[in-house]
User: Fold Pectinesterase from Pyrus ussuriensis x Pyrus communis.
Amino acid sequence: MSPKTTILTYFVATVAILLASRNLIDIPNSSSLKYFVNLSDLNTSSSGKIGSICDDFPPGFPPPDTNTTSYLCVDPNGCCKFTLVQAAVDAVPTPSSKRTIIWINKGIYYHGSKQTKPNITFQGQGYEMTAISWNDTANSAHGTFYSGSVQVFADNFVAKNISFMNIRRPSCIFGLGFFGAQDTLHDDRGRHYFKDCYIQGSVDFIFGNGRSLYANCQLISMSSPVPLGTKSINGAVTAHGRASMDENTGYAFVNCFIGGTGRVWLGRAWRPFSRVVFASTTMTDIIAPEGWNDFNDPTRDQTIFYGEYNNSGAGANMSLRAPYVQKLNDTQASLFLNVSSIDGGDWLQSVIN
Ligand SMILES: *[C@@H]1O[C@H](CO)[C@@H](O)[C@H](O)[C@H]1NC(C)=O
Ligand SMILES: *[C@@H]1O[C@H](CO)[C@@H](O)[C@H](O)[C@H]1NC(C)=O
Ligand SMILES: *[C@@H]1O[C@H](CO)[C@@H](O)[C@H](O)[C@H]1NC(C)=O
Ligand SMILES: *[C@@H]1O[C@H](CO)[C@@H](O)[C@H](O)[C@H]1NC(C)=O
Ligand SMILES: *[C@@H]1O[C@H](CO)[C@@H](O)[C@H](O)[C@H]1NC(C)=O
Ligand SMILES: *[C@@H]1O[C@H](CO)[C@@H](O)[C@H](O)[C@H]1NC(C)=O
Ligand SMILES: *[C@@H]1O[C@H](CO)[C@@H](O)[C@H](O)[C@H]1NC(C)=O
Ligand SMILES: *[C@@H]1O[C@H](CO)[C@@H](O)[C@H](O)[C@H]1NC(C)=O
Ligand SMILES: *[C@@H]1O[C@H](CO)[C@@H](O)[C@H](O)[C@H]1NC(C)=O
Ligand SMILES: *[C@@H]1O[C@H](CO)[C@@H](O)[C@H](O)[C@H]1NC(C)=O
Ligand SMILES: *[C@@H]1O[C@H](CO)[C@@H](O)[C@H](O)[C@H]1NC(C)=O
Assistant:
């Protein structure tokens, strides 16, 4: 990017936040994803009707606390108590038997959220409206190999109708073994549920050792386009880090969409017992024919669990898949197809509507 373009990008992004107008984020598909602020939209909204920036709350919001739920509200323009997602998270009492719904108004929240707490729901206003993004680099993340835009380390976490975006420019190619850390969602430790979410990243963009169900989510790769005729891989949708057979962790994706740019794996085995299933998911041809990667460690082929079930799209063709990949039958898949895959019964049922 030329300095001019960079400044323009910053300017547009800043103006976008200030305006808090309706269609800030132009997400629908990959072509306009790079900077996700569409100048035309912005222009339209700035000349169109905006009204008060604080008038877009639903009537009766926030609802009164109940025995089981309380609400915190985040708005980037200061229209309610918090302007930063992390500030709201910090205000959640622990321990608390109540679920705290953090209601996050339209806007792009550039500072991510580095910590979560148990029993929290992030409720966005639609994944095209509310986005949490991060522009950290691995080096700045206190020496950790990975740094996520949102780190989900806490139990019983739920996210709905929200985007998680890594807005760093993707690095080009990763090759053998390790490579520059790039990631969006550090989904680690505990049971998590993501519904109607949009997650954008490049290398290993959902990673960690969580036990999570992703339903109706869009997983969009920002990796650099791969020239026709080359076979290089430059990303992976997941890097699940299950380290032993005793851990009941894993990622399940149901009714999702995978698209974007680059050529990526569905997952690679960050740890030997990595476990990931994709079901009823549409995938474009960005998925490499072999589908998955064992982190270049063939001993992991015996212990990883990578399953596919009822997927569609050019990327779902399993004829050239790596030998350890399992095509699940109905019985096997049913274990992953509903909230039972994360012990939904005891806590999740109450938050699903
Ligand atoms: C992206 O959007 C364009 C124009 O809106 C459309 O033609 C194209 O099919 C879309 N691609 C995907 C993968 O949805
Ligand atoms: C921005 O939005 C306008 C109108 O909605 C559309 O015509 C244009 O293609 C979009 N630009 C990009 C880069 O997607
Ligand atoms: C913005 O809107 C004005 C008038 O409404 C128009 O003249 C101008 O060309 C627009 N700019 C862009 C970048 O669309
Ligand atoms: C909520 O708490 C109040 C007071 O502790 C109690 O009377 C009421 O029955 C509780 N409601 C529910 C739905 O549990
Ligand atoms: C989370 O909620 C459950 C019940 O829904 C409760 O047992 C647990 O103590 C809560 N955790 C914290 C840290 O408040
Ligand atoms: C997400 O937003 C859409 C549109 O506002 C709504 O129809 C849908 O029910 C929402 N889903 C969740 C899980 O909040
Ligand atoms: C992200 O951070 C890098 C390095 O600090 C900077 O060059 C880049 O412009 C930032 N991108 C955005 C979209 O803020
Ligand atoms: C298979 O996936 C399609 C969506 O692609 C869905 O409509 C259908 O219900 C799924 N079938 C089963 C058995 O899950
Ligand atoms: C799947 O891929 C194989 C090998 O590239 C090809 O021969 C076959 O036609 C594909 N099947 C479908 C349904 O596209
Ligand atoms: C599904 O696969 C499992 C494991 O391979 C097998 O034990 C079971 O009989 C299969 N069930 C059906 C209905 O095919
Ligand atoms: C969901 O899981 C429960 C418990 O394993 C099972 O009885 C039920 O059939 C599953 N539902 C679906 C739709 O697969």
In short: Residues 60 and 71 are 12 Å apart (CA to CA).
